[in-house]
Amino acid sequence: QVQLVESGGGLVQPGGSLRLSCVASGFIFNRYTMNWYRQAPGKERELVAGISPLFTPTKYAESVKGRFTISRDNAKNTVYLQMSSLKSEDTAVYYCAMGTYWGQGTQVTVSS
């Protein structure tokens, strides 16, 4: 069965960085686009970034362009989200997704 397991969330100060990881299993990883979504309290879930099976193209929400980088390692069945210059408004639960499959999410809190 498909499994997506996120890790790497935590508490970080504004301006700081975090790298999220998502390890996938149960499907042929290098055939699928992988996405990162986030959901802040009281807000709808939004697409943050996506990456195609062979690394390009990638796509980003306007709010994170230039600050976040999505990447993948097909040999490790893993997708990453490198987040830099974090802002308080980046606080959310971050989810890895493939099609209609979702991970359990990892909390990112940006606060001083």
Layout of secondary structure:
Layout: E1 3-7, E2 10-12, E3 18-25, E4 34-39, E5 46-51, E6 58-60, E7 68-73, E8 78-83, E9 92-98, E10 101-102, E11 106-110
Parallel strand pairs: 2-11
Antiparallel strand pairs: 1-3, 3-8, 4-5, 4-9, 5-6, 7-8, 9-10, 9-11
Description of the structure:
With 112 residues, the chain is mainly β. The chain has no helices and 11 strands. Strands 2, 4, 5, 6, 9, 10 and 11 form a 7-stranded mixed β-sheet that branches.
Defining traits:
mainly beta, 7-stranded mixed sheet
Classify the oligomer.
single chain
Give the rounded overall mean pLDDT. Answer: 97
Order of helices and strands: EEEEEEEEEEE
**Annotation field: number of helices:** 0
Which regions have little confidence, pLDDT < 50, spanning 5+ residues?
A: none
- Backbone shape: globular
Distance between the termini: 40 Å
Number of DSSP E strands: 11
Structural class: mainly beta
Task: Return Rg in Å.
Answer: 13 Å
Strand proportion: over 45%
Classify the helix fraction into a percent range.
Answer: under 10%
| Largest sheet composition | 7 strands, mixed
